[in-house]
Amino acid sequence: MARDQLNLTALARVGFSELSAVRARLAEAEELGAPDAAELLPMLARAASPDAALGSLLELLRQSPEQVQALLADPVAAQRLLVVLGASDGVAEFFLRHPSELSVLAATRTDVPDAAELLADLLDSVGAVNGFATLVAEPAWVALRVRYRRRLAELAAFDLEQEDPVAGVPRIAETLAHLAAAALEAALAVARTMSAAEVPAPGVYPTAEVAATRLAVIGMGKAGASELNYVSDVDVIFVAAGDEAAGLSSARAVEVATRLAILMMRGINEAALEPELWEVDPNLRPEGKDGALVRSLESHLAYYDRWAKSWEFQALLKARPLAGDLELGRTYVDALAPKVWSSASRDNFVESVQRMRERVTANIPDDEVDIQLKLGPGGLRDIEFTVQLLQLVHGQVDPAVRQPGTLPALTALADAGYIGRAEATDFAHDYRVLRLMEHRLQLARLRRTHLLPRDEEHLRVLARATGLATSAAGLRTLWSETKQRVRGLHERLFYRPLLSAVAALPAEGLNLTSGQAEARLAAIGFRNTAGALAHIAALTGGVSRRATIQRHLLPVLLQWFSEGADPDYGLLAFRRLSDDLGSTYWFLRMLRDSSGAAERLTRVLSGSRFIGELLETIPEAVAWLEDPDDLRPRPLSVLQEEARAVLSRHSSADAAAGVLRTARRREVLRLAFSALLGELSLDELARGLSDVTATHIQAVTAAIRGSGLAADEGDGDGIEFGVIAMGRFGGAELGFGSDADVMYVFRAAALEGDAAHDRAKFIVRELNRLTEDNRLPLDLDIGLRPEGKNGVVVRSLDSYAAYYRRWSLTWEAQALLRARGVAGDKGLLRDFEEIADTVRYPTAIAEQDVREVKRIKARVESERLPQGADPTRHLKLGRGSLSDVEWFVQLLQLQHAADIPALRSTSTLHTLHEASLAGLVAEPDAATLRAAWVFASRARSAITLWTNKTSDVLPIDRTQLEGIARVMEYPPGSANQLDEDYLAVTRRSRAVFEREFYGPA
Fold first, then answer.
1. Is 570 helix (H, G, I), strand (E, B) or coil?
2. CA 903 to CA 895: how far, in whole Å?
3. Is the C-alpha dihedral spanning 809, 815, 817, 819 positive or negative?
4. What is the C-alpha separation between 576 and 582, in angstroms, rounded?
5. What is the pLDDT of residues 550-589, one digit of tens each?
């Protein structure tokens, strides 16, 4: 060849990347009997990797020149060899180990081998006759593996020579499944011979018993669906049966079959002179890895009748007899089919579906998400998940869609009108494209992988191997576009057809009845399916701009609603919201243009009745969902500035209170949004709710008194007045649904005596009246005042001082530990806190008083717990829950706060932290107590958000627990996990409490 035809530019055009070594390699190849460069280069240009093809050709020529030259003598066979070597280092390594097998590439195949041909060939490799092999042990396994790989190389050559490899994917995948089945059948023949003898021994049985043992190998997953990859795990289930006529019992057959199954798996995937083929994975069997490897048919059926979970039935969707006793295998599949196709009506089907969906991307490292061909977003599993879900829903009543393979299932679903033909065609094409990329990836090294190459060179080789692109950039673009389309698959195939069921003119190619639509809705978690269809019809009916936009958006929104804990309520709340805001331009624009805001809206509506019902009073608040900054708690200074503005605009206390009530609802709703969306911590939530409550009380008190936000901002009303926050309010630890514990104090000024007291009582009465809110109740609880329920509602500062000096009990000193002035005259609040300090931080506390604290705590546990309440589930008074932690911390304050100023805090967690720093409690114990307090606090707020009701008891109902768990950011299906976590964290907390509070037993 002329030298200019071997210049670097020309070699680069062929596809070489190792340019500096090419000329020498071509010259050596020619010396060893290969065609000259002029003839060889055009052949190499058709290889995925010309470098790999030329390198492997050289290695083969050096090692086995005669076998290679026999192929090179035929231009067609030579081209085939180079294409295979350029696409697969794994096949090249096989030929280097067994150069005699190169002859498989000599002839051109016009079609793939059928199942019978492959079975006969692999049985021949081990000398099988009547189910027993003549070869055993390692010679048998090597012969089997070599013959398997010979056939694999032949199939790879056919695959790589296809004019349209995308269209040919199903045929290649089916042939790979046939090849795997043939390998299992041959391995079984070897296992029979190795397990049989005339004289039994450990692991060896009488030949007659082995021959009479019926063992069926059930293919699952891709093997069962006849859509296998070049290198896949082959999922199997083993079923055994005896032979009464031969005198073989079922139990004995299971014993023999177990030995056969073990040997089969070893023959396929244990290390030997010839590398293993692939893993035989039996872990989809009943009880998984913990279950018996082989069961009788009766045992299988009993398990699926009594114990199987929904996902186990779904795993059987692709089951088919693969090897062994095919009649027994068909009996197994036929017996379980009714259970598979009725699984969509099982109680826990929705939870199972949610877990299936979650497992799609579970456990993928962050740096692999964008290159995961199988599990990543827009990958193969997305398509398979959607198709299987549609099959399970509609296969309950329509046998036509009960197809094991993904592509046949798509066709059947389109033929029956469950999905549009255009969509089915588009996604069948995308599925084949992704499978082709997967095939070429695995063929390259004959290794199981689903990760696209990260480097440009390997990505370029993959592009050439698939024929989908000519460059790395082109393949990357194709991959991105395909992922984007597939991501919309679930919406287009599952949700959009729901609209046709309520439309006057269904979409072309769709024929979904209302009953079928309801079945889909039920499968994704809707309970009131008829109501959901009615909402869909109301939202999308008509020819208005709003209806047009809703028709476009609703399929996506329905998918998001279905991922929430209560899709029924979410859709109902969305309909109400749309009725209120549907005609406003900004609401429709937000839904259409801000997918983030729309998704957040579906999350809050389907996850919280508290939000849904509060949102009815302030529907325009959904605009905050568009900007995360709008969801942040507003600083106390901003809240107070707004309150001052309201007071300046309204001279009437009633008018001001009405505006302030709306402002409080708005800010609590803002915090609820943030809490449900996971945008703020428990500390931020508690501080935010406490600030909103304090500001509201400050402003309403000021409106009543005709003063500014602080009394010194106005002219005064004859007295000084203050509101003291107590309990969790005093500690700035409020949650959703928390009462606001308070005490009221006054001091005479212009008014004296009874007149001053009457004025204070008037302020308290008005404060209670003007803070009433049926939508968002604010309970100003005065139960912690001196003398409790028997005490006066409001006292003068002098009366408080006299009472605490002469009469106060230990529990009242304890209650004052969280007292904090929040509203009214600053001087009065400061003086009250000074009096409180003398009571709550005593210079010394008598042992008798310590015993009294412990006695009262024990009494609270036995008497205040509601009748019939489970003490392990009560979030406030239960064992190891809030009160245990708070009483422990408060006892430390009574004992040590006088000497350790850092303990003088109204916050439970802050004080616990300082106590740990001071050495009063070991850090591990403090961490245990903190964890329990935080968990119980989060659970209380979650109950309110989920139900819009306050409760201190963790429910036992699974549905309610599931909703609470989702609010607490657990994944779907975590009701039991929430239960276990709460019981565990409080059990540990209780152990610390009993040891440190009551002392050693």
1. helix
2. 10
3. negative
4. 9
5. 888 888 889 889 889 999 999 999 999 999 997 788 888 8
In 3D space, the residue among 541, 554, 427 whose CA is nearest the CA of residue 495 turns out to be 554
* Distance separating alpha carbons of residues 774 and 455, to the nearest angstrom: 63
Question: How far is the C-alpha of 660 from the C-alpha of 935, rounded, in Å?
Answer: 32
| Cβ(391)–Cβ(402) below 8 Å | yes
**449, 554, 544, 453: which is closest to 500 by C-alpha?**
554
Read off the tokens for 186.
């041959």
Note the pLDDT of residue 324.
97
Look-up: residue for tokens 């090849």? 179
The helix or strand, by DSSP H or E, that contains position 217, with its residue range, turns out to be strand 214-219
Closest CA to 87 of 444, 475, 434, 433: 444
What pLDDT digit, counting tens, does each position of 420-446 carry? Answer: 888 899 989 999 999 999 999 999 999
Residue indicated by tokens 């509060």: 614
Whose tokens are 């936000």? That residue is: 709
What is the CA 173 to chain-centroid distance, rounded? 30
Minimum mean pLDDT range among 324-328, 507-511, 616-620, 951-955: 507-511
Instruction: Tell me which DSSP letter residue 884 carries.
Output: H
Residues in the chain: 1001
CA 521/CA 527 separation, integer angstroms: 8
DSSP one-letter code for 901: G
At 839, list the tokens.
């009571």
* Number of other CB atoms surrounding residue 634 within 10 Å: 18
Residues 989 and 885 sit within 8 Å (Cβ to Cβ): yes
Environment class of 546 (CB within 10 Å of its CB; exposed 0-12, middle 13-18, buried 19+): middle
Please give the structure tokens belonging to residue 565: 């804990």
**What contacts 655, CB < 8 A, 6 or more positions away?**
none
The rounded distance, in Å, linking the Cα atoms of 548 and 848 is 75
Handedness of CA 23, 27, 32, 35 (dihedral sign): positive
From CA 638, how far away is CA 46, in angstroms rounded?
70
Over residues 186-211, the pLDDT tens digits come to 999 999 999 999 888 898 999 999 99
Q: Is the pLDDT of residue 264 over 90?
A: yes
Which string of DSSP letters, residue by residue, matches 627-689? -GGGGSPPPHHHHHHHHHHHHHH--SHHHHHHHHHHHHHHHHHHHHHHHHTT-S-HHHHHHHH
| CA separation for the pair 858, 105 (Å, rounded) | 86
In tens, the pLDDT along 70-100 reads 999 999 999 999 999 999 999 999 999 999 9
* SS3 state at 504: coil
The DSSP 8-state label assigned to residue 36 in this structure reads: P
Tens digits of residue pLDDT in 370-404:
899 988 888 998 899 889 888 988 898 899 999 99
CA dihedral sign of residues 271, 273, 276, 282: negative
* pLDDT over threshold 90, residue 797: yes
> Which candidate, 747, 767, 636, places its Cα nearest to that of 694?
636
Number of neighbours of residue 73 by Cβ within 10 angstroms: 12
What is residue 508's predicted lDDT score, i.e. its pLDDT?
52
Residue found by looking up tokens 């072309």 in the block = 508
Nearest Cα to Cα of residue 500 among 543, 582, 555, 549: 555
Number of H helices and number of E strands within the chain?
Answer: 45, 12
